């Protein structure tokens, strides 16, 4: 009898816990139509900024690549010319790539940059079915000239990353169909594939000799 009463009591205690949650505020949100506020120092997708006059801030010094603990950044610098001046300095980044799959979003690249060129934005929605789409080349990282210069990392209110100009809207329209093929590593792989295909396919002289 005592055992049965204990079981009934345990049953009521269990149901009381269940019913108590039925009247509490639900912790879930209707994502993606509703999104929570980011943490004050949230690190999301990278972005290359410009100056007020539209010139690129990046001077191709490669400090971000050197400071990256995950070796996720590749920078190839080039000299500015009087006819085509990309940045105020002597050099600019001819190629700039970030492998977002390797990146650990530590923000060391942002701290190492002497011109505040590379920043980590609050944007994080970059899901894709292709691995190559996560290698972001310069054309996908660089802020469009008409998007504005945005806010420097140290000037954001309460340290909360702001929407850098209208970049979030502009980047949503970027075509990423090229994916990995549009990057420096992608071009290297394509050249290697062409070389293998040439080795595997018989040359015309060989076919004529066999005939």
How would you describe this protein?
Its EC number is 7.1.1.-. Its main location: membrane. The chain has seven helices and five strands. It is an alpha+beta fold. It is elongated and about 95 Å long. About 17% of the residues have low confidence.
Give a brief outline of the structure.
Its cofactor is [4Fe-4S] cluster. The protein has seven helices and five strands; from the N terminus they run αβαββαββαααα.
Give me the secondary-structure category: alpha+beta
Strand order of the largest sheet: 2-3-5
Q: For the terminal residues, how far apart are their CA atoms? A: 100 Å
Assess the beta-strand content as a share of residues. Answer: 5-15%
Largest sheet properties? 3 strands, antiparallel
User: Roughly what is the average pLDDT, rounded to an integer?
Assistant: 74
Run of helices and strands: HEHEEHEEHHHH
Number of helices: 7
Task: Report the uncertain regions.
Answer: 151-186
Please estimate the helix content. Answer: 25-40%
Shape: elongated
Q: State Rg.
A: 26 Å
Number of strands: 5
Subcellular location: Cell membrane
Domain 4Fe-4S ferredoxin-type: 48-78, 94-123
Binding site for [4Fe-4S] cluster 2: 68, 103, 106, 109
Family: Belongs to the complex I 23 kDa subunit family.
């Amino acid at each position: 009898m005592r055992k049965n009463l204990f079981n009934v009591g345990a049953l009521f205690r269990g149901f009381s816990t269940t019913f108590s949650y039925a009247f509490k505020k639900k912790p879930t949100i209707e994502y993606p139509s509703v999104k929570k506020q980011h943490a004050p120092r949230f690190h999301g997708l990278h972005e290359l900024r410009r100056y007020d006059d539209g010139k690129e801030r990046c001077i191709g010094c490669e400090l971000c690549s050197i400071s990256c603990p995950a070796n996720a950044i590749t920078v190839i610098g080039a000299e500015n010319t009087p006819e085509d001046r990309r940045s105020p300095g002597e050099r600019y980044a001819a190629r700039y790539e970030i492998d977002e799959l390797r990146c650990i979003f530590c923000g060391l690249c942002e701290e190492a940059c002497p011109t505040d060129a590379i920043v980590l934005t609050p944007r994080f929605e970059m899901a894709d079915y292709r691995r190559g789409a996560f290698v972001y080349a310069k054309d996908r990282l660089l802020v469009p000239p008409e998007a504005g210069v945005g806010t420097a990392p140290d000037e954001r209110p309460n340290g909360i990353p702001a929407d850098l100009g209208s970049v979030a809207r502009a980047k949503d329209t970027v075509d990423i169909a090229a994916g990995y093929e549009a990057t420096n590593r992608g071009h290297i792989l394509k050249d290697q594939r062409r070389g293998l295909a040439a080795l595997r396919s018989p040359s015309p002289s060989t076919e004529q000799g066999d005939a």
